[in-house]
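Q: Predict the bound structure with zinc ion.
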Amino acid sequence: MPKLTLGDFELTVFSDGTYPLDGGAFFGVVPKVMWSRKVEADDRNYVQAGLNSLLIRTGKQNVLVETGMGNKLSERMVKFYGQPALLLENLAAGGISPEDIDVVINSHLHFDHCGWNTIRDKNRNVVPTFPRAKYYAPEGEWQYARKPSERDAISYIPDNYDPLVASGKMTLLKGGEEIVPGISVKTFPGHTASMQAIIVQSGGKTACYISDLMPTTAHLDLTWGMGFDLYPLQTIESKKEYYAKALSEKWLTVFTHDAKTPWAYLERDGTGKMMAMEALHPQSR
Ligand SMILES: [Zn+2]
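A: Predicted complex:
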């Protein structure tokens, strides 16, 4: 699993696996002749999407950003998306047990971002997967998830968050809060109205889990938004705002759905086009 040092923090990407997403839905209005140069699609037009969680070891706490798709999908949804359910195994392979997680942060509440928040115990009760953790998610997202539109109702599975809110284990965020020293959230509307990026700062360096604002390195162009975005014009404005900071301050960007490149530094080439630069040796930057 990809690992690097950011100031005093250690960052590791843990995957919940990959799943098939319709290429058209993944790239919205971008024609296939253009996106198919950047990513491969199978004969049914599906693209393999990653499910990248970010673990931040601050030295005092273990903070897990996003919990993948989990293992509670309905049979119907398993037909569409499969259910790789690899996150706990991958964490274990990295020496992390569910009890080791102190904080869980969800950027938003779509099922492929908060699935392992909870599991069913042997009596089929929904319980927290990370028993010691304090959970955090955007308040606006939770409000919306209680009454989603017809278009995106399938994206919300209340068992991933409602029991946590009811038991007081999940704190709802307005945006802008610092959750532990060096780790804060910022709202970037577009994909949903209240999606929050997670900003990680230590030793003068910054990383940002930008979530579905730009889910993969193939989505860097301002106009390459996902078909799922509820507010595509706001996605463009939010990307502009993000690039203004991330380029000038050399932020490391973490990509939630990129199966090959989970993180990268962003730069512009001579023509102004955005490029993702490999982050293999970010310590030396
Ligand atoms: Zn989403």
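A: The first strand starts at residue 3 and ends at 6.
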